[in-house]
Amino acid sequence: MSVDAVLLNDWQGVARASDRAEGSVLAASLLGEELALWRAGGRVMAWRDRCAHRGTRLSLGTVTEGGELACAYHGWRYGEDGACVHIPAQPTVAPPAKARAKVFRAREAYGFIWVSLGEPARDVPPFPEWDDPTFRKVIAGPYEFHGNPYRTIENFTDVPHFPFVHPMLNADPDRPNVFEDFDPELPPSYREARHVFLANIAPQLQLSVLDQVEQPRLVALDTMNYWIEGSRDALVEVLGRIDILVINDEEARQLADEYNLVRAAETILAMGPSVIVIKRGEHGATAFLGDEVFTIPGYPLRELADPAGAGDSFAGGFMGHLVRSGEHGPEGLRRAIVAGSVMASFCVEEFSLGGIRDLDEDRIATRYRAFQALTRFGDL
User: How many CB atoms lie within 10 A of CB 104?
Assistant: First the structure.
């Protein structure tokens, strides 16, 4: 099974510490790897759940008084480092060097047993509240369900759905605004930013951030249908103070109350921004640069794994190119739109950050040239 390197090299909680008593062996599973968890001398161990002899599950075995793990089939005994130290059928013969169990990194912390199947760059995530007596700790689950792990993480961090899907359990549907009392305050270094991207959040908060930036050279903004419908006045106010609006086609139609995208762009440009970039999903993007119009197709992909994050990666590539190049005219904006499209095309090819995490400039440049080739044609 192919496993994302981020998950492979991170720490994952696999069992409660209380589930595995001293001298016992517990079976567990992590990312498709079957594990045998055991403890000797106060130290927790996580091994591949397979004896080197006949493949019997080591989780069926026992821990000896000497602190060794004994296989339930032929009694082979393994030391804490995973090496076989005794073969009962050949007690006078030293076990072969290859007779070893696969050992993974394991830690016990915060009431859980944590395992990493790879090479973790850091220790188990800190949880200082665990030792704070003013906090009440409740360990729930585990719960079994069928779902993509990235979608699961996204669901856990999607706080705004709590009041509606779990009313009165961990949120109040009558007070769903988790940003109700949020008042962003920029640190001094951020106030000197020359390039500002106001990501998708309440227009009132976008205005608050913009008020704190001293002399921005270029300001771009993202928004969505929720703010267009529910905070239109504040959105129109912030549109009057920005240079570039990044928006998708349905949102552009909603904001302008006009289905035709050309007329919709004209209406939005009259609200203040000098440039509007309209994202059209798999069909590419269209930009209205004052009197010029620039359209780029979507990159043809054989496989689309996950469209989540395409808009954010587009914005990151777009703004990143503008900052790096320093060119904000029509030609610079055209190249920035292609750069954003390049990043979005990589993003959707894999789940989560998988498509962009290990990108290098050569791969980005190659796909940029592929975009150029998509619209190259000669004279009629």
Answer: 19
Distance separating alpha carbons of residues 221 and 197, to the nearest angstrom:
6
Rounded Cα distance between 174 and 144, Å, is: 31
pLDDT in tens, 42-69: 889 999 999 999 999 999 999 998 889 9
Is 234 within 8 Å of 203 (Cβ atoms)? Answer: yes
- Residue 21 Ramachandran class (φ > 0 left, ψ -120 to 50 alpha, else beta): beta
In terms of domains, do 207 and 349 share one?
Answer: yes
SS3 51: coil
209 and 241 Cβ atoms separated by less than 8 Å? no
The DSSP 8-state label assigned to residue 95 in this structure reads P
Per DSSP, the chain holds a count of helices (H) and strands (E) of 12, 16
Rounded distance, CA 346 to CA 359, Å? Answer: 9
Residue 357 belongs to some domain of the structure? yes
Name the packing angle between helices 261-269 and 249-256 (round to 10°): 60
Tens of pLDDT along 91-148? 999 999 999 999 999 999 999 999 999 999 889 988 889 989 898 888 777 777 777 7
- Domain membership of residue 71 as a residue range: 5-131
